[in-house]
Amino acid sequence: MTDDTHDKPDAGGGDGGDALVSAFTAAGAEYLFCSSGSEWAPVWESLARRHRDGDPAPEYLDLTHETVAVGMATGYGLLKRRPQGVLLHAAPGLLQGSMAVHGALLAGVPMVVASSESTTYGDGPGQDPGGQWYRNLSIVGGPHHVAQPFTKWANEAAHISTLPTMVTRAAELSWRAPAGPAYLNIPLEILLEDWDGREAKPVVPPGSTHSSPEEVDPVAQMIREAKNPVIVTETTGREAGGFEALIAFAEAWNIPVVEPDSAVCGNFPRTHPLHAGSDIGPWMDTADLILLVNCRAPFYPPSRRPSKAKIVVIDQVPQRPHIVYQVLFADVYLEGNVANSLRQLAKRAKDLDEQAVRIRRETQEERHAAEQKAIAAAEEKAEQIDGVDPVLVAATLRRLLTGRDGIVVDETITHSRVVKRHLQTADPDSYFYVQGGLGQGIAVALGVKLAAKDRPVVLTVGDGAFTYNPVIQSYDAAKSYDLPVLIVIFNNRVYKSMNLNHRRFYPEGAAAETGEWLGTDLHRLPRLAGFAEPFGMHTETVDTRDALAPALERALKAVAEGTTAVVDVLVTR
């Protein structure tokens, strides 16, 4: 077609590319995160027309690796909490990005991921899709079958007439609890089909489900009768208003809050007197009530049941369908919007046993004071150690970020507990731990920066995790889209977690006898900061204690001035 109707998508027609862009626009997607593939030519043409004519469309990000595209959408969604569009290339591109898509599923980030296939292989009427689909790109059953295990929902848009509403459905499904990625297979032939202009209806935000007073009142009574209750949470801070609601709830009842190592974001201020660290162990035999608030997997091993505590699960979707094995030992489920449930419970903090409250408050104050003293002692010790101790790195970052409203994205493994403990984050949306497999951290940090351009964003990452990242493609995205972040590498020149497991499983084995530790040595890697130099980024390598703070200060200054900075810190352990 060459008429004006085809040339202007909003005037009553176009092709499948126009239909897809129109649907993402209606869905409220601010961005299309794309790792280019030949099937997206109709989308590119639609965007070019819209840009020419001044018609609305999501902003298009042209990214050079699938993990970067999905990871940036994940980081952006962690803060914005609404679905964006991700375009990958055919089944191979979907497979390349699958780890990051699975990470988005674990992180609870909504997005609509799309890739393509051919349905005619050149034997049908219309434009030739290209021989690559017949020879290399197609997969038996279609890519939507491949995507099913690592997405919330996966399907095929099998006809141009249903394409816009399939995008709407995918976006609405991805946004509803538990939020996560939905996948659409959109065959190239559909993208090239003539579109009649019927547009998708705008996506409506999820409604709010609330627990009834008849459900909340008994839980409030259980808390009122408890002498030694404790809150355990992993993801409350990921919910809109959840961080603030948890503070109000814990303060109203004077209940300690544990954030276990499985916590995926900041849920409660670590500086708060009611923050009780990351170990649920002290409560396993002493607590008489455990409140699992957005806590997917609180006990490890799963059969490790508290000896006497009643367990209340407060969660909109307690049984996560994407978790293969999940044990909560629930006595009561309080379902519905978590922030609302917490606010309702906070209002019911009346007629309390003042003596019991005073005892647990004083006990927790002593516990918190002891933890703060231990943190200070660990940092003082780190100041005396030759070389750079990981504790010193985290503590220095905390001091430098104080008052800057910073956000930390963490992709460390061996040092993750040190990072959480010594950063002492105290604000909502200030800490996120990268979910799923290693190698997404830089992209997630870039997505966070895209969503919070006025806030400093820091990625803490181990040297092993750093080498899993698509570093060159991530730096290209940072440079191309003006997304300066600070990358701090905790570089101990070893896959430490792997080495620890070898030693744990075989403490007196052949490797312990001969010193032949395989699968762990990273001394052979070149200077990690050097990869950023061709992009004109600020780089530093630090191996002495006195050089650490000045180097991080210079790096943060560079970031504030618009340049990504990489500080490779050679830590002692």
TrEMBL record:
Residues 415-569 form the Thiamine pyrophosphate enzyme TPP-binding domain. Signal peptide: none annotated. Residues 342-381 form a coiled coil. Residues 217-345 form the Thiamine pyrophosphate enzyme central domain. It comes from the Bacteria. SUPFAM superfamilies: DHS-like NAD/FAD-binding domain (SSF52467), Thiamin diphosphate-binding fold (THDP-binding) (SSF52518). GO terms for molecular function: acetolactate synthase activity; flavin adenine dinucleotide binding; magnesium ion binding; thiamine pyrophosphate binding. Residues 15-124 form the Thiamine pyrophosphate enzyme N-terminal TPP-binding domain. It holds the Pfam family TPP_enzyme_N. GO terms for cellular component: acetolactate synthase complex. InterPro entries: DHS-like_NAD/FAD-binding_dom, THDP-binding, Thiamin_PyroP_enz_cen_dom, Thiamin_PyroP_enz_TPP-bd_dom, TPP_enz, TPP_enzyme_TPP-bd. GO terms for biological process: isoleucine biosynthetic process; L-valine biosynthetic process. Keywords: Coiled coil, Thiamine pyrophosphate. Belongs to the TPP enzyme family. This is Thiamine pyrophosphate-binding protein. It comes from Streptomyces antibioticus. The lineage of its organism: Bacteria, Bacillati, Actinomycetota, Actinomycetes, Kitasatosporales.
